[in-house]
Amino acid sequence: MKMLFNRAVLEARILMSKKAKITIAVIVTALVALVAAFAIYVTYYAIGKKALPGTTVGEVKVSGMTSSQIQKQLEAAQTDYKATFSGQGIAEKSFTPQEIGYRLDAKATAKNATERNSAFSYVSSLFSSRQVDIVHDIDPAVTNKLSQDLSKDIPGSKPATEPVVKANAEGTGFEVVPGKDGFGADTQTLIAAANKVMETQQDQNSSIKVSAVKPLASQDMAQQMANAAAKLTENKVIITAGEKTFTADQKAKVSFVKIPTISKTAKPEANQQAVGEWVNKNKEAVEVKKVDGKRFVNSAGKVLKTETEPKDGVTVSNGEKLTQEISKNFAAGKDSSVSYETQVEKASVKDKTIADGAENLAYMAAPGEKWIDINLSNYSVTGYEGATVVKGPVAMVPGAPATPTIKGNFAVERKYRSKTMRGFNTDGSRYVSPDVPDAMFFSGGYALHGAPWRGSFGWGGPGGSHGCVNMPVGGARDFYDWAPIGTPVISHS
Questions:
Q1: How far apart are the C-alpha atoms of 268 and 221, rounded to whole Å?
Q2: Residue 381 to residues 136, 145, 301, 375, 391, Cα–Cα distance (Å)
Q3: pLDDT at 427
Q4: Is there a contact between 105 and 133 (Cβ–Cβ < 8 Å)?
Q5: Helix, strand, coil share (%) of the chain residues, nearest 5
Q6: What is the spatial distance between Cα 382 and Cα 492, in angstroms, rounded to a whole number?
Q7: Is the dihedral of CA 125, 130, 136, 137 positive or negative?
Q8: Cβ contacts of residue 252 below 8 Å, gap of 6+?
Q9: Number of Cβ atoms within 10 Å of the Cβ of 43
Q10: Global pTM exceeds 0.90
Q11: Cα angle, residue 94 at apex, residues 89 and 96 outer, rounded to 5°
């Protein structure tokens, strides 16, 4: 009997052991399947970083969509769907959110929709939902204009004036100019309809009324903008160039601030144009214009005179780069301590070999070089080739004391066989001299020309010309035929 009992117990134990093993096997299999399923789930949503289950943007489900897909869907919605308005004296009209002034940030919204707070997000999303707000702003200029367009036939309609932030009179800070109420189609209704269109991604119908409309930007928003702008001017902006240092003062930094249209998300920006003007202005104190030297030498190579000393040029090569860097730092609230990069351009020295004896004349001409000498001391005009006289001297009459002939080094600019000359007398009256022969202009209205109306030459003083060099007709014709455009003209006492 005992033996039979022991046998029964043994068989029962064996049976229980088999059942336990089967149960454990089932549990393990289920767990493995669950883990595998979860792994597949995580992998699916991780690849491409898809929005997790239960995610909505506004009221639209986006689960399983990538950031790019969500972004494209939102961008399409702001132009594909419309809000229709009608009401008090307003004919029915439809507009897209974009036309209402809705300014979507699809990229930021899509990023928020696909973000994970932690790895646990994959688990929590299975048991909860998450609504993502659409990141956007309202353009007051567009919304206010639409308000007026809708109510243009309503007597007394006028747009609301938005508050603005501007530099104060001293240019050292910022001040707020308050906004003013207007009268027109209710802007809040317009904005609410645009929001609803985007949240549902469906067309919407709204009743709208004409009433007093407040600026969309509040006084507080304007003051916050002014405070943020003032904060930017605390940035230090310094440019160095060798031992020179250029530090932007308060007025300059105020000009560096660009104030956008005030809205809930708008922030002061860097005025890159103003920054560039400041960078370029200071650059002028660093740069040096290259000046090539000029010397006069005789036929033996001996330096007779140095007309111009050579000076190496210095140019700033990174002005535009500095403008961009300073602007970026300034907008980000960071100091800028940068340096001008310079390049040196070596000056050369040019030697002009002059004709022997030309060093003693009014012009150091090269051998054979044509030039005209106007001598205001002895009232003569002489033509030279190098240091050799080839024309004249020809007696002339220069400008009267009140209208003297100009002095300096010039060149023949233009020539006319016959020219009508006009101008003003010293008393303000006009003069006209028709058919002036053989006119050679060498500086603006100053010219050598024939003067058939004069009976004598070789004198100066009262009765002289209006500044031109008057010559006998034959002498003027001789010089005209001899001297081409570009011939040096030296006028001296």
A1: 12
A2: 81, 74, 31, 6, 8
A3: 86
A4: no
A5: 30, 30, 35
A6: 12
A7: negative
A8: 237, 274, 278
A9: 9
A10: no
A11: 135
